[in-house]
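[Meeting: bench + compute handoff]

Bench side (C.D.) handed over the final construct sequence. Compute side (W.E.) agreed to return the predicted structure before the next meeting so the bench team could plan truncations. Sequence as handed over:
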Amino acid sequence: MGYFSEEDKKNIQKMKGNQRFSFSSKGSKGRASGRGEKGGLHFRHWSDMGVIGRIWRVVWILLLILVILAGSLVGYLSATEFHPKDTEALKVEKSISSQDAMATSKEFSVMTWNIGYGALGDNADFFMDGGSSVKTADLERVQDNMGQIAHETALLDPDFSFFQEVDVNSHRSNDVDEAEVLKGISSMDDSTFAYNYRVPFIPYPIPPIGKVNAGILTNSNVKVLDSTRYQLYSPYTWPESVGNLKRCLMVNRVKVEGSDKELVLVNLHLEAYDSGEGKIKQTKMLKGLLDAEVAKGNYVIAAGDFNQTFSNADISNFKQLDGMWKAGILDVDHFSDYQMLMDTSVPSCRSLDRAYKGADPTNFQYYSIDGFIVSKNITVKSIKTQDLGFKSSDHNPVLLRASLNP
């Protein structure tokens, strides 16, 4: 025998026809009603909801989907976050014809160049520097920039080349392997590469930056004995850390002819501190590493993008513009046992608030933030920032000429 009378069944059928029905958990056994009773389980058809109710339902569903997607992305980026070791041996790609050792008293040259991942040429502005662009170059422009960078480096013909912001497989540079381009400038060079930026997907802004794999690279026409990556202090904590650089020092050693000493080459791309704990820790680590090498009697050259101006550099020609980033100052008194060198006759970096090509060059913010720290057992002949008009990068290369004291 069923729970419902014939009359109840007829009422249920009527309610189904109206697409509105509910079953009450209270009252008579199995009793059905059109509205249900308090405490009952109610089912209302989509078509019975008002327009505003439908909109809210869509909004809540979309919000739930966004929350799930955001949570999944954060989880994925956290699981894949780049966690380099404090100290890590790097692979040295050997050439077949590099010199065996450095000769004392013979002049040699060292170049440092932040190449702006091959995508920050004179056509570029960038959203994080006051501009509007995210992806600043198509494949053809990246290839053209890298060709010019390789050409200018070949013309300068440095014995040692330090490059920063080198992409190897990044969306922002159209997946061009820039490290391979730079390694191929001279067949006489040993090469080493250290990652400082590895993120499978950076979700901001719109359109997103996407995948980034980048680092610093050193070429040497003297055989590299060994190469080591030293992790610098990072100011970022989770979740900021998943999308930020893990800055480092790359230390390469080459033999000095007729001596048990070594020439120690430090390629760097520092954090842009103006003050605070991070700056203190970064400076202390850099100086500690240099001091340890000098104490052994080694020759030391540290160079790269300091993202700071040396306190002894005359930057009076580079007027500070309102609203533009101001470079911090690295106090040379912390490195009193070294030669702190920047050439400010030409700016080594420009602002990216607008494209450089076709614009009034007097309206840009200029900086001198690329330089050298040199031990006093090295005689510096000259230092010169090359004026390339920021054609292929937002930085100009800087060339040092020097010799080792016997």
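W.E. noted at the follow-up: DSSP finds five helices and 21 strands in the chain. C.D. will use this when planning the next construct.
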